[in-house]
Design brief:
Elements (H helix, E strand, L loop, with lengths): L4 E10 L2 E10 L14 E3 L14 E3 L2 H4 E5 L7 E7 L8 E8 L4 E6 L4 E7 L1 E6 L2 E5 L4 E4 L4 E7 L4 E8 L5
């Protein structure tokens, strides 16, 4: 590894769910990119001088930067806070969101068009999939498949906080 290249591998565990994040940052000379408290940090992929393949790059976003108050999606009602990470990143073929559903709010019952994963970080909810109700709580992961229908309702006094991930055609 050259002195101008820094490679960082980070490993997170969320109650059994393993996410591996490999971040490659290319630093030139003594310039070091440091994130500003209120801005997303974006470093474009750079081309290697001896090879034509990209060296990498990264996008770093924080909850406070992307949080937006929104009504429950799919006409679910109530108030939620949506966190749409990387929504302005070109050529990204996936959606990675966090949503905090306030007491009494929900995601309305709707038909699924693509594979979608819900992962519960905290709180409790009642999920309905193809007419069948099931309780969900921290550590629960649910994969909904195309053609199925589902909705989610927050229950209890604590916000229901979930991660949502699905593929989509990359925005150009």
């Amino acid at each position: 590894m050259s002195p101008d290249t820094l490679r960082i591998s980070v490993r997170y565990t969320w109650r059994g769910a393993l996410i591996l994040v490999a971040v490659t940052a290319v630093l030139g000379g003594t310039r070091v990119a440091t994130p500003a408290a209120s801005k997303s940090l974006r470093e474009p992929a750079q081309q290697a001088t001896s090879a034509a393949k990209p060296l990498g790059g990264y996008v770093l976003e924080r909850d406070a930067e992307v949080a937006r108050e929104e009504p429950g999606t799919h006409k679910g009602g109530g108030q939620t806070i949506g966190y749409s990470f990387f929504k302005d990143t070109p050529n990204l073929g996936m959606v990675f969101r966090k949503r905090a559903l306030k007491p009494g709010s929900g995601i309305g019952y709707h038909e699924q068009k693509e594979d979608e994963i819900y992962y519960v970080l905290s709180g409790r909810g009642l999920m309905t999939i193809d007419g069948k109700e099931m309780e969900v709580g921290p550590g629960t992961a649910v994969l909904t498949r195309p053609g199925s229908s589902h909705g989610l309702k927050q229950v209890g006094t604590e916000d229901l906080v979930i991660m949502i991930n699905y593929l989509q055609p990359p925005a150009r």
